[in-house]
């Protein structure tokens, strides 16, 4: 089970051991991480699970799909080079120590 850390917009952090085989969004909503709204339920169509992946981790994740890339163009918070939709990041043991930041705005 990977340990992951969410850095929230208020400066606080939420870290926990996430189950393998679920998405980062599912882990966040299951744990009650503030700021991960997940309005579309993981369909990569709303952008309300937008996160900024720590630069050390960005290159270690698979590239975004065309659908994810398109949806990232419509997020409420600024899109950065390390922006990802948490619903598109499937967790595995390789994600031990993954760190992401939740933008202040998701709508």
Description of the structure:
It is a single chain. The protein has 107 residues and is α+β, with helices and mostly antiparallel strands. The protein has one domain: Roll (Ubiquitin-like (UB roll)). It is built from 3 helices and 5 strands. It has a 5-stranded mixed sheet with strand order 2-1-5-3-4. A hairpin with a 5-residue loop joins strand 1 and strand 2.
Task: Give a short overview.
18% of the residues lie in helices and 20% in strands. It has 107 residues and is α+β, with helices and mostly antiparallel strands.
Give the amount of beta strand, in percent: 15-25%
Q: Give the low-confidence spans.
A: none
Mean pLDDT reading: 96
Q: Tell me the series of helices and strands, N- to C-terminal.
A: EEHEHHEE
Layout of secondary structure:
Layout: E1 3-7, E2 13-17, H1 24-31, E3 50-53, H2 55-58, H3 66-72, E4 83-85, E5 98-101
Parallel strand pairs: 1-5
Antiparallel strand pairs: 1-2, 3-4, 3-5
């Amino acid at each position: 089970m990977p340990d992951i850390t969410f850095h929230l917009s208020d400066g606080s952090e939420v870290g926990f051991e996430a189950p393998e085989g679920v998405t980062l969004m599912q882990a966040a909503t299951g744990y009650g991480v503030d700021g991960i709204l997940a309005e579309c339920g993981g369909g990569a169509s709303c952008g309300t699970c937008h996160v900024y992946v720590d630069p050390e981790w960005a290159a270690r994740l698979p590239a975004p799909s065309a659908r994810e890339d398109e949806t990232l163009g419509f997020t409420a918070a600024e899109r950065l080079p390390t922006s990802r939709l948490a619903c598109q990041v499937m967790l595995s043991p390789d994600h031990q120590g993954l760190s992401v930041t939740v933008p202040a705005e998701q709508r």
